[in-house]
């Protein structure tokens, strides 16, 4: 035998440093305490290595827990020197070694080939990566015979399966592939067969281009580091990415992995973290759960790795504070110490960023604006003007989401799936995911003629992308972004410009939105807003329906109950309370008449698969059209203490003054003043482009992308 | 002038003790810190004493904040000796004294007469009580001239108004009356006119029976201490009650207030606290907000007073831990010290209690059962079998609510009101409060013939009440309560028996419910369950409606959308996920056929006044009828970490074996065993009553109120 008996991710000095954290109230001390308690609870149950089961079922969960606790128990043995953890790790691994080859393969159920433990090898990769890491922590403690049993009957057959039986899959450049190479590479180190590490890093061919980790990290991300499936999938890929990077750093220093390809590891980690809302949740871009956030283990590992390898950033300290744990190794320790040294840990406040998409960064972008209110509350506005997110993509180019006061205000529905709830269609994606959650109307966007963008054709959607127009992400008073999407509806061009504006007129930054459509022919335009909470008032009469019908028959409309509608002349006001905050939306369009429709999901949902969520839609018809709105955040409501402050807000109305190929001009009027907002509609606008528009004998002129003029009454 | 210059609620020694808490991390230290920060923020704004305004509007809120901060600033001046607090208090009081007599009276808007600051004198009473307390803390610091200005132009006119102009109201025995006497009595001490204290304690006549605090506390509560309007109103009355009791204790020791009438102060405080859910929220009995809890200032004051005056109780320490603050005086200090001395503060776990109603305790009761699960989670089950709660009463006799895992599971809707949200009908009760929230169908009860109990006639409802049958509140394995309501529907008797049962079959206590109806004629019975969350599965086919209609036309049914219905043979299963927990309901009835209807509120709600909440109703028709159900709490769901455990539960079904005037017998079957539950239906049952029922050749016999027999398969 020539297996190593060194832990893969620990030196003796590091172990000694970690040992000192036990019992302290540092994040690392708390992490150790918490994980020890969890492991002790788990160890109190009998060891069980079950056979095959369904995704989300008992067996599946048990195998998953087993690998997590093998990894954890190994590390805790090193750090605490308590032999019970080594015994547990050894016993569990030995039982797997006893049984593994006796398990047949699962029946193949999807495109991912089946393993012996799990229905798809993705999970088996995860199993091997963690089991190898845990094993490496106790291998010196094991007898040679024990080591041989585990290596010969468990690790080697797994490696054989991944690199030979499923060798054709091993070189695939795909986010799942990172798990495969991390598992194989790490297990190779553990059993002392470096060839597996080599093939994991450089691919089966050894060229570093057609497969392997280096090829993956070079090809999977845009130059900005953005991963096209969105943060929900990115945080899943970042886990093996960070783990394996750290392993390569230690065991293959010649690669200089943390500086590889212009620090692609740094770039993509930062790109993931910069999408997160201030409370640590990720916007549910594409198919994604609404609750996934930086407390996910992938993000915990990534934040600790990033801090250790790329240096101090107080946003990372803020994120660790939300995570309330660190990665249990030297990376996490560095972050924990920084956290402890900070007198006053503030929430993460990442700079605004436009993350380009596509291999060359030329296929649109995802824009993220962040601004702090007077009370230091962080506002975040995200807009999608990039690519379609592959098979998990949503048809929502120019869709936005908006967050403040600790909650998502203009909301993403996320996926239609009750993840891992076995009686709910096995926890898998539901039919309603395609027929509702991916449709344009389920987003904060404009739906044309009650149809989905790209006619819900993924192949078509994969070809097109949004076009960035301008991005102003630096200001503390005004930030804005603008983009075009001219290929997403037949014969219809679209441009959306969103901005956050802080003014002395208002207590908080206001979100201003100009959504412009151009077409030779007449269309119906539905400008929709997904909100949560209770309607407080409107400035127009509406009629609630005494019987409910679906709003439409297709493209997601079939799921919307048509609750109420009202005719609007001029500026419409819809005000609601969500949590402790009031929101008042003023919306108008460049048409004499429009209507506002209130909806709730749940129609044609024969198995109660959808959550019941609400929206309001401003609907009008026309050829060229401009929608404009201003969303004011104001006041405070707390039912428990029966307090309500400023339930009305300060803005009065919004007017579309005019729009053409040169620019759009809208006016927002409030208690003491009005704001004239002028936006360039010229694709090639620069900072010096002069604009001039004549509207009703008034000339509006400005230079550059955007101008806001405030007049006091 | 003969005004006292002593603080009403502080001795010098007490002030010195409180001073020591500044900067410590005790609850008192934290309380001081938090209140200081709040006051400093308030003091940073210009002083404003506005004129009249609407309830919930700016002026109303400002006057309210002003009295709170006068009281607080006075105390903080004593404790911190920082003169800025005295100056602020003095400046604010002086400005009120400048303006008060120049304010006319508000226009009378309801039965409560108007004040000069507020639209109803209730608020003016609150103002005076707090302003007097705050004034007493700085009066020694004031010049004699300043004192005279405040006393002559503010306090004396107020006292005159309350005791002369509105003297006819002063002696009313009513919960609002406690505020009146507390304000007048305390202000009397402050200005050195003891006659006001005397009339506040003994009434205008001085007899202690027709008016005044002693008469109020003797007559407002049942012998159990329960206040018939329910905890939401009780916690509002308990605030002046506790404050004034403490004042009387200090300034009229001869009354021996804390021992008055068999310790009625203790009794009623305990009765209030014992209704609270384990998370500190009050069940929304009668008109009540769904979020009101023990963090309300009244409960904070009451918990601190109760601890100081009636001694150590670890449940009070647990409550203080939820409150995260104490009353800022010697009472709170005692509690804070106890809290600090406790190594491991546990959540409050009050004993189960049956709180009788009516002056003599013979008009039914409110039952509260509490049981701890194996994981120490506290389950609470409440049933109303008492009186109608006067003008705020709900028509829900035999209605239940059920709480575990930190959330209300079988839910109260609470009031239909957006409290203090001025644009929402002035923050007042909405029409839907009567037409929906008070109706029987909005509760967890049986509605007969789609009508409301007592035909929604308050006068009729005031006459009748529930009849306790038995109450078993001691057991750690089995607790139960049973009651009759035979006068609430024409020609229909009702009996409900609910129990919580802990068995080795199940991970958690199960709620078992037997709801029996008896009638000569045939009726439609709707057995309704107000739940929240997402339906996971059923064991029967149901059809969701492709267009929605209201379920009925009256008595609250007009607000229920009929979402779906399914036919049931035998035992029905409805399972849902709420938060992190799964719930599975098994229900059956003594009829061959029944149906289950799924509803959501929101029909006929032209102004979006209602929250959208869901229920399921088991409907059947018959004469005598027994509904039986078992509600299992199981598993764990956490979307953020994508974990789902035991989404199915262990129970299979429930059967109604039989019921008659002797008893009811039902069987609950689970994975490994079945439970036979036998309940006495005999009104005069005792512990020794023998019961025997023959059903399908099997004889079921038991002794006493209730028996549960477990058979393993």
Automatic annotation (TrEMBL), chains A, B:
Pfam families: Alginate_lyase (PF05426), Hepar_II_III_C (PF07940). Gene3D superfamilies: 2.70.98.70, Chondroitin AC/alginate lyase. It comes from the Bacteria. It is found in: Periplasm. GO terms for cellular component: periplasmic space. Residues 71-274 form the Alginate lyase domain. Keywords: Lyase, Periplasm, Signal. GO terms for molecular function: lyase activity. Residues 367-624 form the Heparinase II/III-like C-terminal domain. This is Chondroitin lyase. The lineage of its organism: Bacteria, Pseudomonadati, Pseudomonadota, Gammaproteobacteria, Vibrionales.
């Amino acid at each position: 035998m020539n297996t190593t008996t060194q832990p893969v991710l620990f030196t003796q000095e590091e172990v000694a440093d970690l040992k000192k954290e036990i019992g302290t109230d540092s994040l690392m001390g708390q992490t150790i305490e918490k994980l020890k308690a969890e492991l002790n609870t788990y160890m109190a149950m009998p060891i069980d290595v079950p056979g095959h089961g369904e995704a989300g079922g008992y067996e599946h969960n048990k195998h998953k827990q087993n690998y997590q606790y093998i990894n954890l128990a190994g590390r805790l043995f090193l750090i605490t020197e308590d032999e019970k953890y080594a015994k547990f790790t050894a016993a569990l691994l030995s039982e797997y070694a006893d049984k593994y080859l006796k398990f047949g393969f699962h029946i193949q159920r999807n495109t991912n080939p089946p393993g012996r433990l799990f229905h798809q090898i993705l999970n088996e990769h995860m199993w091997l990566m963690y089991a190898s890491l845990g094993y490496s922590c106790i291998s010196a403690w094991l007898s040679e015979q024990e080591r041989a049993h585990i290596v010969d009957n468990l690790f080697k057959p797994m490696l054989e399966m991944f690199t030979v039986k499923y060798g054709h899959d091993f070189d695939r450049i795909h986010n799942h592939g990172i798990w495969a190479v991390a598992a194989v590479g790490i297990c190779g180190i553990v059993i002392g067969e470096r060839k597996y590490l080599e093939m994991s890093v450089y691919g089966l061919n050894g060229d570093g281009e057609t497969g392997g980790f280096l090829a993956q990290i070079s090809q999977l991300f845009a130059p900005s580091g953005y991963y096209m499936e969105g943060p929900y999938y990115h945080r899943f890929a970042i886990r093996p990415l960070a783990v394996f990077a750290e392993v390569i750093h230690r065991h293959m220093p010649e690669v200089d992995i943390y500086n590889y390809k212009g620090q692609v590891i740094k770039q993509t980690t930062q790109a993931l973290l910069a999408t997160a809302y201030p409370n640590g949740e990720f916007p549910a871009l594409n198919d994604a759960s609404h609750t996934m956030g930086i407390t996910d283990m992938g993000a915990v590992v990534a934040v600790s790795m990033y801090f250790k390898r790329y240096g101090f950033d107080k946003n990372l300290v803020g994120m660790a504070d939300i995570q309330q744990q660190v990665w249990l190794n030297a990376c996490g320790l560095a972050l924990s110490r920084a956290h402890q040294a900070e007198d006053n840990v503030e929430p993460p406040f990442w700079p605004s960023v436009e993350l380009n998409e596509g291999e060359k960064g030329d296929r649109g972008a995802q824009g993220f604006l962040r601004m702090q209110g007077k009370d230091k509350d962080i506002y975040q506005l995200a807009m999608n003007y990039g690519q379609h997110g592959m098979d998990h993509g949503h048809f929502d180019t120019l869709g936005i989401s908006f967050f403040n006061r600790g909650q998502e205000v203009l909301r993403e529905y996320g996926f239609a799936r009750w993840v891992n709830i076995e009686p709910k269609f096995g926890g898998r994606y539901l039919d309603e995911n395609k027929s509702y959650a991916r449709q344009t109307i389920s987003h904060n966007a404009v739906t044309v003629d009650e149809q989905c963008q790209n006619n819900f054709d993924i192949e078509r959607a994969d070809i097109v992308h949004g076009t960035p127009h301008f991005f102003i992400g630096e200001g503390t008073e005004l930030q804005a972004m603008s983009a075009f999407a001219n290929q997403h509806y037949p014969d219809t061009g679209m441009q959306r410009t969103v901005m956050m504006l802080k003014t002395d007129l208002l207590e908080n930054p206001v979100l201003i939105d100009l959504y412009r459509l151009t077409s030779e022919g007449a269309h119906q335009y539905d400008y929709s807003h997904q909100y949560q909470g209770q309607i407080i008032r409107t400035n127009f009469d509406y009629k609630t329906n005494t019987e409910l019908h679906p709003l439409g028959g297709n493209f997601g409309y079939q799921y919307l109950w048509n609750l109420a509608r009202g005719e609007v002349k001029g500026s419409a006001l819809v005000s609601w309370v969500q949590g402790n905050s009031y929101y008042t939306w003023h919306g108008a369009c460049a048409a004499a008449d429009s209507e506002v429709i209130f909806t709730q999901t749940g129609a044609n949902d024969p198995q109660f698969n959808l959550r019941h969520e609400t929206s309001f839609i401003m609907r009008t018809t026309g050829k060229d059209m401009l929608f404009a709105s201003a969303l004011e955040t104001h006041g405070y409501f707390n039912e428990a203490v029966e307090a309500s402050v400023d339930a009305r807000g300060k803005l009065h109305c919004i007017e579309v003054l005019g729009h053409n190929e040169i620019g759009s001009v809208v006016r927002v009027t409030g208690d003491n003043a009005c704001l004239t907002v002028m936006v360039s509609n010229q694709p090639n606008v620069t900072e010096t482009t002069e604009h001039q528009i004549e509207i009703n004998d008034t000339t509006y002129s400005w230079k550059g992308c955007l101008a806001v003029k405030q007049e006091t009454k």
